[in-house]
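Protocol step 4 of 5: obtain the predicted structure for the target chain.
Materials: sequence only (see below). No template structures provided, no constraints applied. The aim of this step is simply to have a reference model before the mutagenesis design in step 5. Sequence pasted as it appears in the construct record:
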Amino acid sequence: MTLQSKKISEVLHEKKRTWGWLMAHSDVSRSTLSQIKNGKNNATFSTMEKIADALDVSLDEFRTKKNA
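Step 4 output (structure tokens):
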């Protein structure tokens, strides 16, 4: 699991949603989300926008490095 997929999983858990729900509501293809979930591919910025929009969160939720 990559850090990116871990962050997405954490937000899904907080929102009481599943990867299946995200596949149905994010306008991101099932294969792309599957690759992200399994750590085989990192999401592009536009894909992360779609995921954030579906989950109704800011893209900042998925940042791995935050400025102090």
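Step 4 remarks: The first helix runs from residue 3 to 14. The CA atoms of residues 8 and 62 lie 7 Å apart.
Proceed to step 5.
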